[in-house]
Design a protein that fits this description.
single chain, globular, alpha/beta, binds 4'-phosphopantetheine, about 50% helix, 5-stranded parallel beta sheet
């Protein structure tokens, strides 16, 4: 019997808990799920393709039917190369719908036999996107609970100065409070 193979294409820069939620759901309904990272030379990514592959491989190691790969060119051509009959995509809010519908219908025009399957991540991840995670982390905010610990650590490594600022900010306030109260005592 033919294996029911799906690809889950995306940028994954970085992988979020929303992506992981979808991978887990996808792994349950497809015989094989290929997480396919787009190698896009036009974009200026935060994490290199190699770094994203390494993170996703570590994060999906517990699923025996999930593997990680990279591709360039058309998604439909990549799907054909790996023998996939479906493309898995996540839909979070209504705002995703228009873009996802356009992509799904364009992919259908290009390769009618390839089916797009939409799944919804858990509600708690419905506002989560890699773009927002990058922005919050780059500005020194906490992304705890939004990305796996491994990704959080790698973000820390990459954005060290911003994280240091965030980590030491409360200390700085305390220190300045102590200075203020000393000054008050002196006065
Ligand atoms: O995670 P993203 O950035 O929303 O993923 C978008 C992705 C990679 C699925 C999309 O840009 C894509 O399929 N690119 C490959 C080129 C292609 O096939 N373009 C036509 C799609 S309609």
């Amino acid at each position: 019997m033919n294996k029911n193979i799906a690809i889950y294409p995306g940028s994954f820069d970085p992988p979020t808990n929303g992506h992981l939620d979808l991978i887990e759901r996808g792994s349950k309904i497809f015989d094989e799920l290929v997480v396919a990272i787009l190698r896009n030379p036009d974009k200026d990514p935060l994490f290199s393709v190699g770094e994203r592959v390494a993170m996703l491989e570590a994060l999906t190691a517990q699923y025996s039917n999930v593997r990680v790969d990279t591709f360039d060119g058309l998604t439909v051509d990549y799907a054909a190369r790996v023998g996939a009959s479906s493309v898995l995509r996540g839909i979070r809010a209504l705002t995703d719908y228009e873009y996802e519908l356009q992509m799904a219908l364009m992919n259908r025009k290009l390769r009618p036999e390839l089916e797009t399957v939409f799944m919804m991540p858990a509600e708690k991840y419905s506002y989560l996107s890699s773009r927002l995670v990058r922005e919050v982390a780059q500005l020194g905010g906490s992304v705890k609970g939004l990305v796996p610990d491994l990704v959080e650590q790698n973000l820390r490594g990459k954005l060290d100065p911003a994280y240091k600022l965030a980590e030491f900010a409360p200390g700085r306030e305390e220190r300045s409070e102590t200075r203020k109260s000393r000054a008050r005592k002196k006065a």
